[in-house]
Amino acid sequence: MNLLDTYHHYITEVADRRTNIHPLISSPVPILLISAAYLYYVLDYGPRYMKNKQPYSLKTFIFWYNVFQICINLYMIYLTYEAGWFGDGFLFCTELDYSYNDKPMKIIAMLLLGLNVKISDYIETIVFVLRKKDRQVSFLHLYHHVSTVLLSWYTVKYFPNGYAVMVGFVNSIIHIIMYSYYLLTSYGPEMQKKLAPFKPILTTCQMVQFVVLITYLMQAFIPGCPEMQYFAGIMIINLLINFVLFYNFYRQNYTLSKNKKK
Length: 262
Hints:
Blueprint: H1 3-13, H2 29-50, H3 59-82, H4 85-88, H5 102-120, H6 122-130, H7 139-158, H8 163-185, H9 189-195, H10 199-217, H11 229-261
């Protein structure tokens, strides 16, 4: 098998036939170009553009962006419910359904929407650059956003089924909590001061999410459970990397800084 045949095999033949017709999914080129353009802007062009400019406020945009994120993640949970996920059970050896029936197609709709939401998350970093919040454009932030987009694409293309639904469901819950916090802090310094004690809790919630999902995905390796080892293995590795990065962030910003103040 030559290189072209290998590419065709993994991009077309192995992919899920129900999602591979989507223009954003059929080829890796669009998602790679979007992610490359994002990194170029936030790491190079954006900082150069803002170098001699005053930071933008963008308060109104940030407010509505947070509202959008809360609503769209609530809608994703609703789609999961509509697909009958909660009624059929989703905690152990989830059944795989590759048909065009109503339930699996609603799951695909949820995962496709999730991918688009993860792409829209790139806007958050662009806002950081325009507001000259350079400290927030960290390796953790960039890795988390880019890896989430790429793995969401991978999920929709190859595994829009089974365990992937739980990953999207748990992530939506975390994002509702997170963007609700951001929405409240957008009301000004006084509210930010009141909510400051909850900042470490947000990072803790992220880490708990990673542990829960790693534990959940381990069932893919139990004999008799649906075979999604490739999906589970890649996801677990990424979740472990994210856990280490978030733990280091927590330690640097909350544990060590707290000890220095004593």
